[in-house]
Amino acid sequence: VMARWNLRRGACQPGVSPRERTTWRRLADALVDGYDPRTRIYEQCAGFHELEPLVISRTAPRRPVAADLLLGRERVRQAQIVKQPDVLMLHQMLPDAVHRGSLVPNLDYYEPRTAHGSSLSPGIHASLFARVGRDDEALEALRLTARLDLDDVTRTTAGGVHLAAMGSVWQALVHGFAGVRPHPRHLALDPRLPSAWSALEIPLQHAGRHLRIRIERDVLTLTTDNPLVIRLADGPMRRLAAGETRYRRRRDDWEEETR
Amino acid sequence: MRSGVAAIDSSSAARPVLSAATAVAKLLDARVDALHVTEVDAAPARAAADAAGLPLRVVEGEPEAAIAAASSPSEVALVVVGARGTPGGRRPAGHVATQLATSLRKPVMLVPPETPSPVRLRRLLVPLEAAMPTAAALRRLVELACRGGVEVVLLHVFDEERLPLFTDQPQHEVEAWIAEFLRSYCDRPDEVQVQPRAGVAAEHLLAAADEIGADALLLAWHQQLLPGRARLVRAALAQSHIPVVLVPVREAVEAVEAVSGAEASPSLRRTRRGAGR
After folding, report:
1. Across residues B205-217, what is the average pLDDT?
2. Which A-chain residues 130-189 have CB contacts (< 8 A) with chain B?
3. Which of A213, A237, B58, B257 is the most buried (most CB within 10 A)?
4. What is the ipTM score, two decimals?
């Protein structure tokens, strides 16, 4: 999927010859991505479904767990154990490049098979759980990641803090709960505030603009120093004027409140 | 002067017991008091003591009671006994050895009869869980061993419950984890090694002892050999070919003070109160 995305993006770049453009696009179209339209699941790698069907969420005393130490490297290699999001990372990084509606089936299939043996794993899962509205699981994963070094969970924090894991906390908040996605010509937002929170406020920079996003139960307040084009959930493109604009949720859409 | 009581019977286990007692007494700067509780004939015990160059006290009575009585004075820092009379003898340990190890409030060294003589204490393997009471119990003996030039290797086995959560970059994390472990549980972090393993502690203990060429094992325990308890101690006693030193945890303060002849540190006394055992 990533190779295909890169080939197609590359083909759009200036300076690419027509011949290269055609070749890259043909290659992109020919790539096999392991997606099964019946199950809506992407196969982790060729042959993954033939590995030992070990679901680590049922086997391990708890997760996260260093599966290599628990089961031995050889067994892990031959079982359906994933250390950290891989197929699910596609959904995190390129949500528009995967099949629509495939997040939930892949989350249900791969998350129980994920040992979370990387400190980068829980934060990404927090983001994905947030996207599908599974607040409890999202918050549990977020809490673990956010407190990784505060609680010295790994007993190695004296040797160095986990900066990338801290980054995944930001990703969970911004891409997960706020549903922020940058696009070439607009900024997409799809807030999913957990019921346990009263508000989430995020300062952002996008395309040279300084924004502040405040998400409350049914109110979204956007403040920008310069106009930009936004899209809220699956709604239409809108022009966001400089200054503060409030939107109120109406079912699955957001309606601008007149000032 | 501190002393160690080396209790011997008439079996071939006597010589390794006396040899081990001599080696550990050197470490503790203690004398060895060899003791035999006579049942039939003390001649074999006398011969063993003569061969070791040690005077032998011969007493009568029940062996456990007599040895316990001889061990009760405060200057007695350690008791050394045979784990069993013969290599094929009772597991995990013989009756007298078991009684002494579970009842005496002092470190007891159990010496397998097949221990090679002379016993040399050059390398000590110490299984250490990440728990303050056991670390506190072993702290002083580890310190004495280091001071005495003995190489100390701490073995930490992650069981299923204590497995690390993450292995991002083992090449960095293992070192960082070891440093943190030593800071938390060892007073001499620069003088000991740590070997982390994962799995069943009892399996790794004996394998590690063979691998590093350990001369003795040092374990802290709660003196409970009931079924389902003290699995590591049982395995060590049943299968080890080298001496096993058992240090009572619940009496860490007294054990430490007996061994070192010094008052236990305030932090250990606080640990003792907090352990609630």
Report:
1. 95
2. 153-156, 158-160, 162
3. A213
4. 0.77
